[in-house]
Records
---
Amino acid sequence: MYADYQTVMLCIIAAMTLIAIVNLALIPSLRRSGLPEERPRVSILVPVRNEEAAIEECLRRLTDQDYPDYEVVVLDDSS
């Protein structure tokens, strides 16, 4: 009876291995590409509510980004 379980497990492992090999052979992979020369403008939206204690540090870190073209928009929803 124990040998039957071993045989079943061996068949399952063999089937999974075969599926993985077929997937590697037949499914195309994504080509690697670097960052585009022209990066899009990015808007960083910051919803705030009662954040007086933490907003200064948050905004300082956001404005320290090295991304070349972005804006930070702070949204106070007055809730």
---
Amino acid sequence: MKTYFACLAGVLFASCVAPDFSATPRGATVAQLDKKTIPAKFHGIWTTNPSGKHSEDAEQPSVISATTWQAHESLSEVQSVQIGGENEITILVISNGEGEQWTERKKLQLSADGNELKITNLAEPYRYSLYRVR
């Protein structure tokens, strides 16, 4: 009878403990474990010009940091970051611009040389590329 109660207590305890979904993705670094921080290799100033040269008459370039993404007439604050691979993340941001606020989920894929950033807006969906300003 004691064995029965011990087993029952174990089952009840196990059902009360939340599962751990925070396992470190294969190849993730300590800096990537902060679920609200964009990894450093994605940071920088980005333009729509494939040459990487941002002209004075073009729209303001995008600036990506650890916790924000500033684009033409908008500022986005990072809410979460999911590591999809060595050069791929998915971010959830809350954006503000021109008196409005909206939420977006975007997939960011960095080229092997780190100079092209493919962005997919997952809600729409649409895709475009930005290029690191050199």
---
Amino acid sequence: MIKIAPESWDFGDQAVGVVTAPKTATLTNAGPTILKITDIVTSGIDFAQTNTCGQSLAPGATCSIQITFKPAITGPRIATLQILDSEPGSPQSVVLAGTGK
């Protein structure tokens, strides 16, 4: 069982072309077996991520995903952070939102 906290991020208003400070999501392997991680990606061009997760996560272990928002245009921007893994229902998703100003 995989847990992601928080389940969504709203970065609020951000100047177009300027990157925000990173926000951290925590991925937890709450299951009894090793979680295999294939990839962690963001959709769209406005959000980016870096992480400490590697290719697997032991039972009870956590890793961090740093997410930044850099709006390309003005207006509402919505994307997802997706974790492709060995859990049923993969990929796991986190909703990302922000507004370019």
